Amino acid sequence: MPDATVTSVTIRPEEAAHFGKLASDWWDPKGRSAMLHRLNPVRLEFIRHAIDAHWAQDIRTMKPLAGKRALDVGCGAGLLCEPLARLGAEVTGVDAAPANIEAAALHAQGMGLDIAYRAGELGTMDAGRFDLVTAMEVIEHVADKGAFVHELALRLAPDGLMVLSTPNRTAASRLLLVGAAEAIGAVPHGTHDWDDFVTPEELRQLLSAAGLTMGAPRGIGFSPVHGLRLTGDLSLNYIVTVKRD
After folding, report:
1. Are 137 and 110 in contact (CB under 8 A)?
2. Is 154 inside any structural domain?
3. Distance (Å, rounded) from C-alpha 35 to C-alpha 50?
4. CATH of the domain at 79
5. Residues of the chain by 3-state class (helix, strand, coil), percent to 5
6. Is the pLDDT of residue 114 over 90?
7. Is 232 exposed, middle or buried (0-12, 13-18, 19+ CB in 10 A)?
8. pLDDT in tens, 181-211
C-alpha cells in the first residue's frame, strides 16, 4: 500500500481521490492504513543504515539528519515525515491529496513537530534541493514514471541521498499484494494495479535516464515468524538507495 499519490505533471485524479479517502484514519494503526504502520519500521531501518553509510556518521547519534533538509514525496498523512523530523531533518512533505496534507499537518501540530506540508504536483513547486529525498510506494501510481523520476532528480542536492521503495512486478506480487491482500482487507480494494508495478531493472533504467545511480536493492518480505522485514528476496517489494552519477 502506498504512502500517497504524488506527482509532477503525472497526477492521476482517481489515485489522489482514492488515497484522500483514507485521510481520516491514516494514523490509526488498526485502520485501513494498518499495513503502512507495520511497514514503516522496516523502511526506517533501511533509511537509517543508508543515512549513516552515506554521510559516514556515528551510528549512535540520535539526530543523524541534523542540519539537513528532507523531502518526502507522496507523504500521505506524514507517517515517514514525522520520524525524519525526529532524526533532526528540516522536513517537507508533498502529496497530491489535500485531505492527506490536512491530516498530516494536524497530526504534526499535535506532536509538536514543525513540518512543511504541501498539497499538489511536485513539478509545480519550487522548494529548492534536499539532502534526502524519499518516495515510498509512489512510482507505481504515477502515469509518467520517467517524468516523475526527473522531478525527483531535480530536487536532490549534488551530494544528496534518495531512497525509493516500490512493489516488484512478479507472479508473487500479483498473487499476494494485489489478489490476496485486497481480498482479506490488508490494503483497500483498488489500491494496486499490477501492470503499473516496476521491476528493479526498469527502475534502474528510469533513474539512469535522469542522471541517477541505483544501489543494490533490498527486498521487503513477510514471514509468519518475523513479520515484515528486510530480505534478499525481491519478489514482493524492494527498497533502494539512489545517488547522482
Report:
1. no
2. yes
3. 23
4. 3.40.50.150
5. 40, 25, 40
6. yes
7. exposed
8. 565 555 666 566 889 999 999 999 999 999 9
User: Phi/psi at 200 (nearest 5 deg)?
Assistant: -55, -40
Pairing of strands 227-231, 218-223: antiparallel
Report the C-alpha gap between 136 and 164 in whole angstroms.
6
* Number of domains comprising the chain: 1
Report yes or no on 204 lying in a domain. Answer: yes
Q: At what angle do helices 13-20 and 98-111 cross, to 10 degrees?
A: 40
User: pLDDT tens digit string along 30-44?
Assistant: 777 777 888 899 999
Residue 7 in domain = no
Measured CA to CA in angstroms, residue 7 lies from 64, 88, 135, 172, 189 at distances of 28, 26, 10, 27, 22
- The pLDDT of residue 10 is 58
Cα distances (angstroms) measured from residue 25 to each of 29, 83, 102, 140 = 9, 19, 12, 23
Grid coordinates representing 200 are 528493479
Cα separation, 64 vs 76, whole angstroms: 23
- Over residues 126-136, the pLDDT tens digits come to 778 999 999 99
